[in-house]
Amino acid sequence: MSEVVTPINLLGHSPEQLSNLVAQWGGKPFRARQLQRWIHQRGVDDFDQMTDLARDFRQQLAEHCIIQASEVVHEQRSADGTRKWLFDVGQNNSVETVFIPEDDRGTLCISSQAGCTVACPFCSTGYQGFNRNLTAAEIIGQLWHARRAVMADLLTARTDGGATPPDRVISNVVMMGMGEPLLNYSQVLIALKLMLDDNSYGLSRRRVTVSTSGVVPFMDKLAEECPVALAVSLHAPNDALRDRLVPLNKKYPLKELLAACNRYLKHAPRDFITFEYIMLDGINDLDEHADQLLAIAREVKCKFNLIPFNPFPQSGLKRSSHARVREFAQRLMEGGVVTTVRKTRGDDIDAACGQLAGDIRDRTRIDQRMPQRAQIILKQEP
Ligand code: SAH
Ligand code: SF4
């Protein structure tokens, strides 16, 4: 019986891995860079089309390697231009990617895990339990695919006689989709390196944002190895409340988290941390919470991004009123801290934050084990 050899998926190879592979085959380093440009800049997945590579090199590649993103099982477009793709990542798991065009930029929100272990009670991903970490190919594959799709749109616009809409190009990536990126560090790191590398996507460090619920040791590693912009999902201004809203806080409490933020700032491409703060009616949106946040802002150079909660049925939680969000933001700004309120985009296709539910199965049966998580939180609120 002949041996079945699994082909190598080059999509998830870091620049270093690509050059190692090419070197193993006796190729010069510039061959690896050419190959990288074909894969990521031109979005080509067929070695035959890589016309400036030597024929025998192409043959060798075709024999041993593939370039493969996850399959898109569903695609939606919102009236406001937002696009959403649902990728099949096997075994009935899927993850979502959202493209948000704006006047001056195009932002892609990508996922890092199928499900999430952190299990925040306001997050639909958290409700699905944890299924698995995505591979680097599955992570970067979201950008690879979205870029091809957005470029195809551009070409259509051109044939229609329209000028290139500059807002269609992906200029920013935020790791704010499904999953906790810093709990899938090694694969996320490869994807980040590809995003930044000039032979692939060439994005600026300031335009690539990792959002974390506060995995302290990996914040330090990221600072050392690939300091991109950092958003920290704070959501509560004291440990008692944060233990309940972001359960990881029990492991890495606020004091440690804030110290890690200050260490990160020494390496960060921006001189502030963005604190994300979801606005939950009657839970974390009182004046006293804003005042506690201002005390935090005296310790860490930061901006606040208030996120109106996107409700989903199981959560049992409510979004703060518009007026409350405005007053809360006002109080923070009067305290001298830059505060923005996140616009909700793509609402008609459930593409907004925390609505990225996909088809992930709740294998861990978290709903059955903890059916009233949100209610527990409501009751414990003093
Ligand atoms: N795990 C990481 C990144 C993914 S979550 C993190 O928690 O930071 C990305 C953002 O979406 C986080 O700030 C998260 O708090 C927010 N989010 C999750 N559920 C939400 C919901 N139902 N409504 C609004 N924002 C939500
Ligand atoms: Fe995980 Fe982030 Fe959702 Fe919390 S908010 S459950 S950390 S994906």
Explain briefly what this protein structure is:
The chain is α/β, with parallel strands linked by helices and 382 residues long. It has helices spanning 15-24, 29-41, 55-64, 124-127, 136-159, 185-196, 216-225, 239-245, 254-265, 287-299, 322-334, 366-369, 373-380, and strands at residues 8-9, 65-66, 71-77, 83-88, 94-101, 106-109, 113-115, 130-133, 172-175, 208-212, 229-233, 273-279, 302-308, 339-341.
Topology:
Elements: E1 8-9, H1 15-24, H2 29-41, H3 55-64, E2 65-66, E3 71-77, E4 83-88, E5 94-101, E6 106-109, E7 113-115, H4 124-127, E8 130-133, H5 136-159, E9 172-175, H6 185-196, E10 208-212, H7 216-225, E11 229-233, H8 239-245, H9 254-265, E12 273-279, H10 287-299, E13 302-308, H11 322-334, E14 339-341, H12 366-369, H13 373-380
Parallel strand pairs: 1-2, 6-9, 9-10, 10-11, 11-12, 12-13, 13-14
Antiparallel strand pairs: 3-4, 4-5, 5-6, 7-8
Helix pairs in contact: 1-2, 5-6, 7-9, 10-11
The chain binds S-adenosyl-L-homocysteine (SAH) and iron/sulfur cluster.
